[in-house]
Amino acid sequence: MMTLGGLQFWGDVYYFHDWRIQQNVLTGHYRLLDGKDLRHASGTLNECRAFLDSVRKEKKLPPMSGKSVLLLHGIIRSSKSMTKMRQAFEKEGYKVFSFDYPSTRVDIQDSAEYLHRAILALGGIEEINFVVHSMGGLVVRAYLSKHCDKRIKRMVMLGVPNLGACMADQFKANAIYRVMFGPAGQQLGRDPDGLIAKLPTPDFEFAVIAGARGMVNGFNPLIPGDDDGTVSVTSARLQGAADSVAVHVLHSVLMKSDQVIDYSIRFIKTGRLRKTGKPEPIPKMTPQFKVPSDAKRT
Asked: How far apart are alpha carbons 218 and 199 in whole angstroms?
């Protein structure tokens, strides 16, 4: 049966090549999808695993191996928003997994647990990298607060609100916003005592790509300073980054920009964003979390 691939009601928990097992956030049951999002089994996790084992034997699928890239979409989005990025990394020889999670139905910590289960399932994979858009970067940081995997090597962050999003501060009390963005939307603000302030900085190499207008004021007049229309450049710049760059691209299409894709592939391969190989790191400072002094609080 054809499905929509997950959207906001399913979270990926298991991968094997192009096959994946998802769990429904409302009912708790599982389903097995192939690479075209066709459902082949439904029921318990063991039942889906057993069906996948039979497929594996029938099709003589080899064990997984090599280097991988996990792509994480932002809030309200799905893995389909990362399709162009996925295709580019596949051409470079990476095993790519587009992680789907119910971003508007659960909080960030619960999304991180879905990610944890999916990473555990990557048997045979020798290297794990991340390319994350918007809240997807916070999900990885939440994962790192409880879990680790020695195979993780690098990550590229695209417009991630690492210091919180002032837009979330302004709209978190709005009824429509609360319904659309769910519990995770309430965690995206700049509260110094909130979740984002407590998330760890990755202990592996990561790069920050921020969307920007390149002027004192950005695309969105509601956001202080330069921004990509949703996240300020200041908020995206997480201390400890091995490299960083600002691009003239709006937040919603960062992951589809040819320039951003080129930067992302180069960093995952070499640890540098630019062809010159010269990095622009973001040095560590204290305190690590700081609300900009010119930011308006509501």
From this structure: 26
- Cβ neighbours of 87 (radius 10 Å): 11
| Domain ranges within the chain, ordered by starting residue | 1-62, 65-270
Q: What would the CATH number be for the domain defined by 65-270?
A: 3.40.50.1820
- How long is the chain? 298
Residue 292: band (very low, low, confident or very high) from pLDDT cuts 50, 70, 90: very low
Handedness of CA 61, 44, 80, 274 (dihedral sign): negative
Cβ neighbours, 10 Å, residue 19: 19
- What number of other Cβ atoms are within 10 A of residue 135's Cβ? 30
Chain-centre distance for alpha carbon 176: 24
How far apart CA 134 and CA 291 sit, in angstroms, is 18
Nearest partner of 205 among 239, 249, 137, 155, judged by Cα: 155
Mean pLDDT of 44-51: 98
Burial bucket for residue 240 (CB in 10 Å: 0-12, 13-18, 19+): middle
- Chain mean position to CA 287: 25
User: For residues 130 and 86, is the Cβ–Cβ distance under 8 A?
Assistant: no
pLDDT value at residue 294: 43
Quickly tell me which residue has 């995770």 as its tokens: 184
Strands (E), the chain: 10-16, 19-24, 30-33, 39-43, 66-72, 95-99, 125-133, 152-158, 205-211, 243-247
- The contacts of residue 145 (CB under 8 Å, 6+ apart) are 112, 198, 199, 200
Q: Copy the structure tokens of residue 284.
A: 């560590």
pTM over 0.85: yes
Structure tokens at 32: 């097995």
In 3D space, the residue among 269, 288, 282 whose CA is nearest the CA of residue 154 turns out to be 269
